[in-house]
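Slide 14.
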Amino acid sequence: MPSTTVRRPLRPAVLLTAAVLAVSVAGCGSSDDGATATPGSAPAATSAAPSAAAGVLGVRDPWVKAADTGMTAAFGTLVNAGDTDVTLTAVTTEVSPMELHEMTMKDGKMVMQAKKGGIVVKARSEHLLEPGGDHLMLMDLREPVRAGDELTFTLTFADGRTQTFTAVAKPFTGAQESYAPGHGEPMPGTSATPGPSTSPAA
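Slide 15: predicted structure.
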């Protein structure tokens, strides 16, 4: 009986304690909710941060054509995942001065020229930088760019934002485009294979 008598008075206390704990937990819960709301924005900011870190544009499969001297070019795919058009206005690297260029037909030959107005990447679309098309031009190499070298590039956009990306140099065995500015002459130091080329400049 004593044990029963002891138990009975304790039950309401246990219930009371449980009730108090429930209220405390509820109170903590509301405080947690507030905290969750704040972290809720934090994750949003955190997820935005990688986007910013990733850059204004995605740069997929970037590469540079290996060359010993003279000029060469960097290629890849610019990816705009945003809802507004993005205009690339300049690019720089440590190994040479750079310009944004395009290939165009002049007097029956494909020649390189500056891309007027920059390179526009439409919203929710991709823009290919490739041999025979738009490319990032390394104008006058200060040192050889050999296969396997990794170069860092900085892109500048019309709104003043910048981003960097790296690209690995590799030999290129495709068409023998002419990158000489305003001329139909082969670009020095960028022959894809040793020996004279039998391919036209285009």
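Speaker note: The chain has one helix and ten strands.
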